[in-house]
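TL;DR need structure tokens for one chain.
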Amino acid sequence: MPSDGRGAVGFVADAIRAYVLAHPGAADNAAGIQKWWLPPDLANRPTADVEAALEALRVAGVLSETRLPDGNVVYSAAQGPGKLRP
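>> reply
TL;DR here they are.
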């Protein structure tokens, strides 16, 4: 992983954003995102890095979260014009 000062969370966030751009209908929980959405070199990052990236993307308006009745959280692309710019 290149060292440009952003840290691992930035790389994870970039990978998640790229996945959602390519698969705008995708939705999953943090564990599924880590396993299926991230490339192999990032999938082994600590879960805390993935969760921090998801929260940053949610705050930025890129992702939305849906809390299910069982307490699980599912992330998907935020709806609205221009939310998923590359």
